[in-house]
UniProtKB/TrEMBL annotation:
Its main location: membrane. Residues 6-430 form the Major facilitator superfamily (MFS) profile domain. It comes from Streptomyces curacoi. GO terms for cellular component: plasma membrane. It is a multi-pass membrane protein. It is found in: Cell membrane. InterPro entries: MFS, MFS_dom, MFS_trans_sf. This is MFS transporter. Residues 425-449 are annotated as: Disordered. GO terms for molecular function: transmembrane transporter activity.
Amino acid sequence: MNPRLTLTSSVVGAVIVALDGTVLTVAQPTLQRDLGASLAQVQWTSTGYLIAVASLLVFAGRLGDRYGHHRVFGVGMLGFGAASAGIAVAPGAGCVIGLRVVQGVFGALLQPATLGMLRAAFPPDRLRTPIAVRTAAIGVAAAAGPVVGGALVAGPGWRVVFLLNVVPTVVFGVLALTVRGPRQASPVRLDLPGALLLGVALACLVHALVGLPGWGWTAATAMLTGAAFVRHERRAASPLLPPDVLGSAAVGSALGMLVAASAALSGTLFVATFLLQDTLGLDPVQSALRSLPLALLMVLAAPGCAVLLRRAGARRTTVAAMTVLALGILLLSRASATVPLCAAFALVGAGFGTVMVAATHVVVREATVESAGAAGGLQQTAMNIGPVLGVAAATALMGPDGARELPLVVLAALALAGAAPGRALPGRPGPTIDDHGRSADRAGVPAGR
């Protein structure tokens, strides 16, 4: 696939998933009233999706390694769009929940492929800018989601929210399936037992973190199946997680930073909602205006991070960015006036946007083309587990009185702790780019059709 078309497809796929999640949050109250759904059913429209996505991301990435990322991306886009269309005409809450789970399955297929396609289309030393563009687009979607969702819900209704996905998913899904990708000399073998064990472990972990009834049993199941997965991977001839990905200290550190950063961000936003509306008495529009610098700085930080990576290296960039993220959260814990609040949100957005680009760049760049899907699946898993962990921690720390200082201080400490793994990331690049002996990967990159 042509590199420009690959980048466009990757951006569209990532934006559709990000936009879908943000606009659904706005639409949930209206959805509940129109369908006569209970609060638990509304919660499951999000939880069912999260469980499906988290449990399948790594296996979906491995499918891309075997059958081609553009094919898996195309199937994921078409399925995601079909499920969205089904939700738009769903007669009841149960149907919406079931289709959201289906949507999660196809979302798991397309998300790792958006990174796998980039790794296959761009040489390692040219990945910074495509990843920065993709991250900036996600930031724009996060900022536009509440506005678009609010306008649609107030106008044509919540069902139109899901129709937004249909046209772009069909166009780019069909386009991806019609493109012929490079043939693999030795396709990777699929580790089905490992995929099952990891899927159960992650699904149970998400269930436990969300705090649904029976979370104790699912937490224990997550620990047991996680241990069984580790034991299986050590003995498997073709493990689900390739040794070049799992054995890389840089990849492991980058994933840890992504979990910490996304947990800190999501937990902070959860607390900030109550801070702005309950403590400070602002309405939703006023709250959105004060938090707008977060999305704006996240968008601006993405291209800036590409420059920082080239000049300072991933190690210094990520450590500094995690520190900025922590400072922003600490400032938010004490801010009440408009200017300090906007400054705090700006620091949070700048720190998170930079970490996301830099850590993602390390994960994708360190993987070979043959393992790019697995690496993308791990990156997406980190970005899905982190927010659930952050919101769960914030909920537990806020308590019944809705105190904000303690949870925000703890989340800032989490961000600072997340800077420690940055010491294992690559330093400042030298005059020539060392792609770790994988320059042969470039021979397999299609020139474009």
